[in-house]
Design goal:
By secondary structure, the chain is an alpha+beta fold. It folds into 2 domains: 124 residues, 3-Layer(aba) Sandwich (Glutaredoxin), CATH 3.40.30; 308 residues, Rossmann fold (3-Layer(aba) Sandwich). 28% of the residues lie in helices and 23% in strands. Strands 8-7-9-10-24-23-21-18 form an 8-stranded mixed β-sheet, with helices on one face. It is globular and about 120 Å long.
């Protein structure tokens, strides 16, 4: 029997197809699956997330307040969030629960959201060629025992997993780790100049300012002390306090510039920091050198000509785009590119005679680097052609780890302004095993520089470093999956020239080859047609 295409529309067949679809739909409700083809499996729950959810000992409830039927690009957020919460629930062993609520037309739900400090945001909607404004809820609250954590606004699924897991870690932990930021030496202000870093750190850590002009010790509850961009010298009594913090096993993250550059005024000079003898005791020294790298962005600069002001594009080699990282370290494993701004080299030769400590490079410049010493020239127009860029892999970030010896071992305790000893306790001569991270640039994490090259991984690197220093390495694998930078691999000039020539020659050669191929096929077809014609003319048949 021959099959006819319209048999499929027979009544019985239609009924069977509908029945099969219904059964398939019912079965699929009990299974969850997703095909994730992204490079870092961004939309698949990580192993760490599953472990943290399985570790729940008490019920965790997530109340998601989302307005339905939103315009693009918000229309898919609620569905994506619900999908991810459903996947998390599957691994929660009954302790992970969630509710999806729409407070738009429910006054009780609106009041409930307000109690959780969830405020609606304004979204734009185009209807009948008019822009209308609509208030929408896009947040959630996590409730665990008598504690609460809030995610005020969710607009992207990309960072949602990290947001939820970091909140779970914070809400379920009996103790919250504390990160301190040194103040009193004109350091960069966390809440004024590093607002992105401040916002992200507060999701997981308690943040404390440490002003040593007001006290003579570093609080015991501080796990990591950050020194970011001091513009004044650090006095001896403050160095002693920091030294004893390290001797107690505290972890130190120092990002400093020994050269202060001001592009607006077009000048740079040595900073007032005179800490070399102190830091060499721990195995490192930030040098008074400005690193330059041909792997750097092209930026617009304003120049003056006889016709007035003009905008000129120029490669600014004092902003190296770092792509060389120590991939064995979890905090750096997934980074693509970090933009540094007026970085300094780091000298670690002082560690050579210290058997109790080890040095690891964290990241370094490219194979086409150079550096400046005083007098410094930061003008992109006058820098051209002055440097050969024949240096390679200048260290820009290092890790010093091991047991450190106090700088004040066999010395007297410094005194304060009143002539009294800074501490009444004995000097701790040696530390347990601990770590110091040193970065030869304090500008890379400032808000004003984060916008220079969108997509650079500056913030991710800093957050990963703090996580790693605070011994919370598991979250690094979740956050690092969101790296968005895709730097172009640098190649030699000869290779670039060869590729350019091939790009010019290959396309027309392919077109010519295809034309010859088509011409040959048509020529053969004409010969066959002519032969058949002659055969028919002679009374033959085919």
């Amino acid at each position: 029997m021959k099959f006819k295409s319209n048999d499929i529309f027979a009544p019985m067949n239609v009924i069977l197809i509908i029945a099969n679809l219904i059964v398939l739909n019912l079965i699929s409700n009990h299974f969850y699956g997703r095909l994730d083809l992204t490079e870092n499996r961004t939309f698949t729950l990580s192993k760490v997330t599953k472990e943290i959810i399985r570790e729940l000992e008490e019920p965790l409830t997530i109340k998601a307040y989302f307005t339905r039927d939103l315009p693009s690009p918000y229309n898919t957020v609620a569905r994506d969030v619900e999908d991810q919460l459903a996947e998390m629930k599957a691994h929660g062993k009954g302790y992970f629960r969630y509710e999806f609520l729409d407070p738009t037309d429910e006054e009780d739900l609106k009041k409930e959201a307000e109690r959780f400090r969830l405020e609606p945001i304004q979204v734009n909607e185009i209807k009948a060629d008019k822009v209308e404004f609509k208030l929408a809820y896009l947040g959630m609250v996590l409730i665990y025992e008598d504690r609460q954590e809030v995610i005020p606004t969710i607009q992207s699924l990309g960072t949602l997993e990290y947001e939820i897991v970091s909140k779970i870690k914070r809400i379920t932990s009996s103790e919250t780790q504390t990160v301190g930021f040194l103040e009193g030496h004109e350091e960069s202000k966390l809440r004024e100049e590093m607002t992105y870093l401040d916002r992200e750190l507060r999701k997981l850590y308690d943040i404390k300012p440490v002003d040593l002009s007001m006290r003579n010790d570093i609080p015991d509850d501080i796990d990591v002390l950050c020194i970011i961009g001091p513009k004044q010298d650090i006095p001896e009594k403050d160095r002693f306090v920091i030294d004893q913090f390290i001797m107690r096993g505290g972890k130190l993250l120092m990002a400093a510039n020994k050269v202060v550059a001001d592009l607006g005024q077009g000048k740079a000079d040595r900073s007032p920091l005179r800490i070399d003898a102190w830091t060499e005791n721990y195995g490192f020294r930030i040098k008074d050198e400005l690193v330059m790298d041909l792997n750097s962005p092209t930026l617009p600069f304003q120049t003056m000509t006889r016709y007035g002001r003009n905008i000129t594009l120029a490669q600014y080699t004092l902003f190296p785009q770092v792509i060389n990282f120590n991939r064995e370290l979890a905090a750096l494993k997934s980074l693509r590119q970090v933009l540094l701004c007026y970085p300094n080299t780091i000298d670690t030769t002082a560690a050579a005679d210290k058997d109790s400590i080890e040095i690891e490079s964290l990241f370094w410049s490219s194979e086409r680097s150079a550096f400046q010493t005083t007098p410094f020239d930061i003008n992109p127009m006058t820098m051209r052609g002055k440097y050969s860029f024949d240096m390679a892999h200048l260290p820009l970030g290092v890790l010093v780890k091991g047991k450190f010896t106090s700088y004040w071992k066999d010395k007297t305790i410094p005194v304060d302004d009143d002539g009294n000893p800074v501490s009444e306790e004995d000097i701790i001569p040696e530390s347990p095993f601990t770590r110091i991270v040193v970065i030869g640039d304090a500008n890379f994490i400032l808000d004003q520089y984060l916008a220079v090259v969108p997509g650079a991984d500056n913030l991710t690197m800093m957050l990963n470093m703090v996580d790693w220093m605070a011994q919370d390495e598991r979250l690094i694998t979740i956050r690092s999956r969101e790296v968005s930078s895709r730097p172009i691999q640098q190649i030699e000039d000869d290779t670039r020239r060869t590729i350019k020539i091939l790009n010019l020659l290959i396309p027309p050669l392919l077109i010519i080859a295809f034309g010859l191929f088509r011409w040959n096929i048509r020529k053969s077809a004409r010969k066959l047609a002519l032969r058949d014609y002659k055969i028919k003319g002679q009374g033959g048949s085919i």
